[in-house]
Amino acid sequence: EAGVAQSPRYKIIEKRQSVAFWCNPISGHATLYWYQQILGQGPKLLIQFQNNGVVDDSQLPKDRFSAERLKGVDSTLKIQPAKLEDSAVYLCASSTRWDTDTQYFGPGTRLTVL
Amino acid sequence: GDSVTQMEGPVTLSEEAFLTINCTYTATGYPSLFWYVQYPGEGLQLLLKATKADDKGSNKGFEATYRKETTSFHLEKGSVQVSDSAVYFCALRSGGRNTDKLIFGTGTRLQVFP
Known about the structure:
The complex is a heterodimer. Chain A has no helices and eleven strands. Chain A is an all-beta fold. Chain B has strands at 3-6, 11-14, 19-21, 23-26, 32-38, 44-50, 56-59, 62-65, 75-77, 86-96, 99-104, 108-113. In chain B, strands 2, 5, 6, 10, 11 and 12 form a six-stranded mixed beta sheet that branches. In chain B, strands 3-9-8-7 form a four-stranded antiparallel beta sheet, with no helix packed on it.
């Protein structure tokens, strides 16, 4: 079974530029999550989708971050414009449904904002 | 709000030594508890979990017991190997209606030397 796929793996941009990350969850997984992991910290949930609807985006900085999950499969996370403090690893995870215990994580995208 | 506190690292051990990584939590209700591991260059992987008080999760020689009275979920292994070198994250699943947010600790880096 293929795991969660993410691209790109690495991205370097300058502040005020825009960037987008892509995630393809495990086939059949209804729930998709985006986490932000700043160096030296644990991952923090940014947004959770159930199929193509948003369940929780309470910690998403909506003035600059946006995410969508069209057709309930792939998802894109965008930052516009980026700030220095956005430098982090962005992790995508998926699970079969919202109330299962196991989330499967992708390898992450490491973003460096200069 | 819900939170997880785990011991700071790095933890440096010789091969075959005994490992303990402390984790305590604060939560309303009855969360599920997890240990995730992140090997160098790889994504987060679920190591073990426990869903109710007094449950013991185990995997790959690692164990952790859900202690409600002390709000703890310490990770232990009787004899570590060099291949166990990784960052270990304690987490709780903060449940609610249609959401299953994972709240992570800051991670503990384990370094095992031959």
